[in-house]
């Protein structure tokens, strides 16, 4: 079985003061650097449909209203190597046109170049799903790819 599209094509990360975030068609990934030796009992993480809060050792690292809605019951967080918290959120709207421009409504926005690269990647991921026999991981996209690119679903075979 082949690796998922995002593993073959790489990610387009958006750097933040505490780590980075990136997205696929279905998920938003948040990676937060924490002091080495951090234990799970030091972490307080709350994941809601439109809200996130993360505190480590009583210090708030991340809190606010998410850019778009997520599936509350499918959000998870893990502590890796006692120095990295990885949060995975499942997008409610899993359309290629739903490219988050920022993690929170008014914070951690992707700069224009990163936003462009994120949108290109989501459009290629959409094409991969629509055409599973082709490998788009090394493809370049140009032209009208904003909002997920052109919609060919109404074309007859």
UniProtKB/TrEMBL annotation:
Q: Check the record and name the InterPro entries matching this protein.
A: CS_dom (IPR007052), HSP20-like_chaperone (IPR008978), NudC_fam (IPR037898), p23_NUDCD2 (IPR037902)
Q: Which UniProt keywords apply?
A: Acetylation, Centromere, Chromosome, Cytoplasm, Cytoskeleton, Kinetochore, Phosphoprotein
Looking up Pfam families in the UniProt record yields:
CS
Q: Which SUPFAM superfamilies match?
A: HSP20-like chaperones
Domain CS as annotated: residue spans: 14-104
- Tell me the compartments it is located in: Chromosome, Centromere, Kinetochore; Cytoplasm, Cytoskeleton, Microtubule organizing center, Centrosome; Cytoplasm, Cytoskeleton, Spindle pole
Main location, first listed in the record: nucleus
**Has UniProt tagged this entry with the keyword Acetylation?**
yes
Alphabetical list of Gene3D superfamilies matching this protein = 2.60.40.790, Single helix bin
Quick check: keyword RNA-binding in the entry? no
Q: What is the superkingdom listed in this entry's lineage?
A: Eukaryota
Q: Where is this region: Disordered?
A: 138-157
Recorded GO CC terms? centrosome; cytoplasm; kinetochore; spindle pole
Q: Which GO terms describe its molecular function?
A: unfolded protein binding
Q: Transmembrane region positions? A: none
- Quaternary state and interactors: Interacts with LIS1.
UniProt-listed PANTHER family = NUCLEAR MOVEMENT PROTEIN NUDC (PTHR12356), NUDC DOMAIN-CONTAINING PROTEIN 2 (PTHR12356:SF18)
Role noted for this protein = May regulate the LIS1/dynein pathway by stabilizing LIS1 with Hsp90 chaperone.
Q: What is this protein called?
A: NudC domain-containing protein 2
Q: Which organism is it from?
A: Phainopepla nitens (Phainopepla)
Instruction: Supply the gene name.
Output: Nudcd2
